[in-house]
Amino acid sequence: MTRRPVVEAYGVRLRPFRAEDSADVVDGCADPLTQRFVSNLPTPYTETDARWWIDVGAPAAWTGGGAAYAVADPATDRLLGAVGLSNPVPARGQLEIGYWMRPAARGRGLATAATRALSEHAFATGAVRLELLTEPENGPSQRVALAAGFRYEGLRRSAGASREAGRHDLLAWVRVAGDPPGPVARLLPDLPGGVLTDQVVALRPLAPDDAALMYRLHSRPEVVANQAPPVPPTREAIERRCRLAQSGWLTGEIARLLITDVASGEPVGSCGLSYTDVAAGEASVGYALLPEWRGRGYATRAVRLLAGWAFGPAGIARLSAGTVPDNTASHRVLERVGFRRESVQRGRLPGLAGTRLDDLTFALLPADPR
Known about the structure:
Layout: E1 7-9, E2 12-15, H1 22-29, H2 32-37, H3 47-63, E3 67-72, E4 79-89, E5 94-101, H4 110-124, E6 129-134, H5 139-147, E7 151-161, E8 167-176, E9 196-197, E10 201-205, H6 211-218, H7 221-225, H8 235-243, H9 245-250, E11 254-261, E12 267-277, E13 282-289, H10 298-311, E14 318-323, H11 328-337, E15 340-350, E16 356-364
Parallel strand pairs: 5-6, 13-14
Antiparallel strand pairs: 1-2, 2-3, 3-4, 4-5, 6-8, 7-8, 9-10, 10-11, 11-12, 12-13, 14-16, 15-16
InterPro entries: Acyl_CoA_acyltransferase (IPR016181), GNAT_dom (IPR000182), Ribosomal_N-acetyltransferase (IPR051908)
Keywords: Transferase
Protein name: GNAT family N-acetyltransferase
């Protein structure tokens, strides 16, 4: 039997699987979260499946040009999870890296440590490029990728196979030889402490559980009328938007936030920030409030908080806001924050039935009074 190298780095040990690992393999692979995001696992996952993996599956990964490691605690040698390499493309010097962790081992940075350790071992033994593919809804795995030095490269349409014989998109994260071990600097960093607040309103990242509220807000006629095109969203589209909110933040596409009233904890509305020109450091903002919370200055407070985060931790150089010309309530909010009217771009926005709408643009710079 070929002796497989043991890798110890970043506080974890990567070693071959052993027969005594079978119960811990079941613990990890039968877990609902692992089952959800590792779609090629048997379900239900049994002791028989674990023994097959240890005796057949893992050795086959090695003979196929990849690797299959148990992630173990260096002090006890007990299995914490797994990390491996697959799908080699020799002409590119490329391999795909993947991992799972037992429930008790999560939240301790061990997946990041194992991914870093195996990545550096792979580069030291000839790999040039490593790909890490995640499902769009798997935010924790995307955080591991970023922490381990993998940069977001783009969406792979229908690259994943679902259990129900369908296909789904995957996000590609890549690290090449010579890249630092991470973490990767993000276009949209996390909020300091997870929230922005002025003690009257608070902003926090949008979550899947916010779907019902977001649908109620964004299907209101007056909210729909001020977007382009003015078409109400479907419930399915709003649910997907909330499920992918974390991913959109991590990839740098858009930061979606819920606005709440600090005193009551009640939701007030939503706001967001997305890059319009990364090279120029320009991003745009948008917002909407539920009718019962309007007229209290909450939109102004929310946009002011968002601007402070944008010009501070996010390092954005310029904020813009596009509005339809007759949305005077939104214009007043922007002007109170310090945005200045800049231009009307005629026919820039799509309307209904092939019509076009004008776009009245406001902008704010870091030096502008707020």
